[in-house]
């Protein structure tokens, strides 16, 4: 099978059968760590919320057979707790730091197992493609990533799952890449139609933390002219708060033609399903 990427979606060409598979509805969805865990309490998953979110995915995929999804999730009170203790994102050197690298991997993987169990309970054929085994970074940026397994998973109707994870780094020894870091690289390779970031906040607030004026549309020009007070994250978070997230996603929509990003609340039941259906229950980022 020969896999090619075009601006309108992911095309998979099977020369033996003369078949062309077209995925014009490729979407990346992230469950924020603050959504699926209690970030103020170490190693505390929100299992009921996971069940609700995965059922919404199952319904959306059933309603739209053309929809293809890559699911990512943060580490919340699992990986961030260990990462803060050992300073893993800044680099890894020495036996104690490498022990911390292993601990961050273990905790992130433990949460990922809970996510996959919820997906399986919703009858979704999910498979985790752990970044630590496929990604090499260079000074905190993805340098190489073997995407053949992820593309094959999509071609065969599976739901590939990635997550914020430790990776080996050519400059730092080791580091942590967030789901947004991974999505940014994947977006440039696979050209998804949308990136959906489901967290606790309803979107990007103009007056955080008062939360009375929600910004419905955000472009790079608006962000440059009038940067809102976006605030950080409650609980341990080693990969940046809302301001870094918005800035990074706006750079990405400039790089990938036609891409839009939605930042919205996954706390309200139904929002994930609505977002997967093309609605905008939050702040839409675009050029």
Structural summary, described in words:
- The protein has an 8-stranded mixed beta sheet, with helices on both faces. A 4-stranded mixed beta sheet has the order 8-7-10-11. Strands 1-2-3 form a 3-stranded antiparallel beta sheet, covered by helices on one side.
- It is α/β, with parallel strands linked by helices.
- It has one domain (24-285): Acetylglutamate kinase-like (Carbamate kinase, 3-Layer(aba) Sandwich).
- It has 9 helices and 17 strands.
- Helix 6 packs parallel to helix 8.
- Residues 3-9 and 15-21 have low confidence and may be disordered.
- Strand 10 and strand 11 form a beta hairpin.
- Helices cover 37% and strands 28% of the residues.
Brief write-up:
This protein is an alpha/beta fold and 287 residues long. The chain has helices spanning 33-36, 47-63, 76-86, 95-121, 148-155, 179-190, 220-225, 242-255, 271-276, and strands spanning 2-6, 9-14, 19-23, 25-31, 67-73, 126-128, 135-138, 141-145, 159-163, 165-169, 173-177, 194-199, 204-205, 214-215, 217-218, 260-265, 282-285. The longest helix is centred in the middle third of the chain and has 27 residues, at 95-121.
| Strand element count | 17
Which strand order do you get reading across the main beta sheet? 6-9-5-4-12-16-17-15
Percent of residues in helical segments? 25-40%
Molecular shape: globular
Counted up, domains total: 1
Q: What's the architecture, going by CATH?
A: 3-Layer(aba) Sandwich
Strand-residue proportion:
25-35%
Structural class: alpha/beta
Under CATH, the homologous superfamily reads: Acetylglutamate kinase-like
Radius of gyration over C-alpha positions, nearest whole angstrom:
18 Å
User: At the third CATH level, what is the topology name?
Assistant: Carbamate kinase
What's the main sheet like? 8 strands, mixed
Write down the secondary-structure element order. EEEEHHEHHEEEHEEEHEEEEHHEHE
Q: Please report the first level of CATH classification, the CATH class.
A: Alpha Beta
Instruction: Please tell me the overall pLDDT.
Output: 89
* Contiguous helical run count: 9
End-to-end distance: 34 Å
Uncertain segments: 3-9, 15-21
């Amino acid at each position: 099978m020969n896999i090619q990427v075009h601006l309108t979606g992911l095309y998979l060409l099977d020369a033996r059968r003369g078949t062309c598979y077209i995925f014009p509805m490729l979407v990346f969805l992230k469950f924020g760590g603050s959504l699926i865990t209690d970030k103020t309490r170490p190693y505390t998953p929100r299992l009921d919320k996971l069940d609700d979110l995965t059922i919404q995915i199952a319904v959306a995929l059933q309603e739209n057979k053309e929809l293809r999804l890559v699911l990512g999730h943060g580490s919340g009170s699992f990986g961030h707790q260990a990462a803060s203790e050992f300073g893993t994102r800044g680099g890894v050197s020495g036996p104690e730091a490498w022990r911390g690298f292993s601990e961050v991997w273990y905790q992130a993987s433990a949460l990922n197992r809970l996510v996959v169990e919820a997906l399986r309970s919703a009858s979704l054929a999910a498979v985790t493609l752990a970044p630590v085994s496929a990604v090499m970074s260079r000074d905190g940026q993805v340098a190489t990533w073997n995407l053949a397994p992820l593309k094959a998973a999509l071609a065969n109707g599976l739901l590939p799952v990635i997550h914020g994870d430790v990776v080996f780094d050519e400059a730092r020894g080791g580091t942590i890449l967030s789901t947004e870091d991974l999505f940014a690289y994947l977006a440039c390779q696979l050209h998804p139609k949308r990136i959906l970031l489901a967290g606790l906040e309803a979107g990007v607030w103009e007056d955080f933390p008062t939360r009375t004026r929600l910004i419905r549309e955000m472009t790079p020009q608006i962000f440059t002219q009038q940067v809102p007070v976006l605030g950080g994250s409650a609980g341990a978070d080693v990969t940046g708060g809302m301001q870094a997230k918005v800035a990074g996603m706006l750079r990405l929509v400039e790089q990938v033609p036609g891409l839009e990003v939605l930042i919205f609340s996954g706390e309200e039941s139904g929002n994930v399903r609505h977002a997967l259906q093309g609605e905008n229950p939050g702040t839409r980022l675009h050029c």
